[in-house]
């Protein structure tokens, strides 16, 4: 017996483009395609390609740099909701053997400035918010920190870019680093509303795997607290992700039950206090646990689908139905297929099959 799965109709939508704050209908009409990519571990980028021949006077259309120029701010939107905002950093020309010439440009968001600045420095008795504001101020950004973190006696940036330094520090507290215009955000994904996607509807395709190979029962971090002349050590276990799991079965529980308990010690972290040991151990455990279930999907483009967004996926069966976190999002467009979005996601557990 063959089941028929009915697909819901797609919602066609063509992007709008502004450069330097001005709408660009001529660019929109010449658009051949775009790729707007963002991930948890890098700056967001945009790659756009346009037809570059014709117009009122036959010839190259966009080489005067009046619209497309280095450093210009560009915004790509769908249904008046921004998908990407950044500055043009590269311009290219393409001349095929049998076809009209095209022009392309690449843009990066405001985190580009942080990635291009490398330095060594230290912060004494500083919180995550203190460091974030210092980094943001240096690049003309406003920091908005939604994660509470205690002050540390010393936070060192050693030959790191500002982006790598802030990313590593935020990850210790289970937070991500993103930018929205001129606002630098440090936040966790807790409390954000979920975007609902259903297979054979807005979720066009999805591949998912639950893999125990990288799972551990516990993760231990150890170092030495010089001030108190005592060991600084902490062991993180499944209690770290209890709220994320809900009624799901986590990878470590399945590892213990179906194979055997496996404990890991991270010897390279060298925490200088008990609180730092706890932060590092719990952060490492959280990252490991979330890597248990990973998926790749294709869905209708929605501005609410961005890196760090919660995705409520349905129609997959009770093993894989549930809430995922978007770890990578790529918005795509071409005139034939329209707007579509590829994403990668993770989840710390699977549904209870019993």
UniProtKB/TrEMBL annotation:
Q: Which Gene3D superfamilies match?
A: Baseplate protein-like domains
Q: Which Pfam families match?
A: Phage_GPD
Spell out the residue ranges making up region: Disordered.
1-21
Instruction: Quote the protein name from its UniProt record.
Output: Phage protein D
